[in-house]
Design a protein that fits this description.
Length: about 190
């Protein structure tokens, strides 16, 4: 008897949940992307998740060089381009040279007052042409995420030879600065 009451209670909770979901509106902005672009975006997103996981693993081992590398190459500005360079066997010097070049381009565009909407190349696996048609807010959120990754790297670079608890806390705060942008964008946009 108790068993049946239990099942009934579970079913009632499940039903209430379904009704609540059906009533809840998804008020996120729908991005109209063709299927191929959707696939690229989601692949890129899974890549970001993997990079975040690797970053946390490196941090838990106190491997700050690797945290820096992941922050710069996998999560920072131009991560698609930089990761492709790494895969093609580019040296660290070549990668840093590319980062410097992209940074200079970014600054030049900012100084010329160019808006985020017309800036830059591909983003999150979205090809350049499509990317430029994305809402400005989406592009800004993407850039804010990359900026947060670069900020986290600056925190890591300022750490001395013997990291303190406060240093770890500061890096974790930097990591959370990245994830808060993941959360913000997922709350604002959907693709289907
Ligand atoms: C500029 C916007 C934006 C940012 C920033 C962003 N995402 Fe996404 N992400 C999206 C959109 C849009 C989707 C599709 C969501 C949907 O349709 O429900 C998505 C989907 C995903 C998915 C689902 C992938 C799949 O295969 O279904 C994962 C995982 C994900 N994002 C992880 C992340 C992580 C981790 C970060 C931060 C490091 C991040 N995203 C930052 C926009 C963003």
């Amino acid at each position: 008897m108790i068993y049946f009451k239990f099942i009934a209670a579970i079913s009632a909770v499940a039903l209430a949940g379904t009704l609540a979901n059906a009533q809840e509106e998804d008020d996120r902005v729908l991005l109209n992307l063709d299927t191929a672009t959707q696939v690229m975006l989601l692949k890129d997103m899974r890549g970001l998740t993997e990079s975040l996981d690797s970053l946390l693993a490196a941090l838990s081992e106190g491997d700050f060089d690797q945290v820096t590398r992941l922050g710069q190459i996998n999560l920072g500005f131009g991560h698609d381009k930089l990761m492709a360079l790494v895969e093609s066997g580019a040296s660290d010097t070549q990668i840093q040279a590319m980062r410097a070049k992209m940074k200079a381009n970014r600054q030049a565009r900012e100084e010329s007052g160019e808006s985020a909407a017309t800036m830059g190349g591909a983003m999150f696996g979205i090809p350049k042409g499509v990317g430029q048609k994305m809402p400005e807010d989406f592009r800004l959120m993407g850039q804010a995420m990359h900026a947060a990754a670069e900020d986290m790297v600056s925190v890591v670079e300022a750490i001395g030879d013997t990291p303190t608890v406060a240093d770890y806390q500061a890096v974790l705060e930097g990591v959370q600065g990245i994830t808060s942008n993941c959360v913000a964008c997922h709350g604002a946009f959907r693709i289907r």
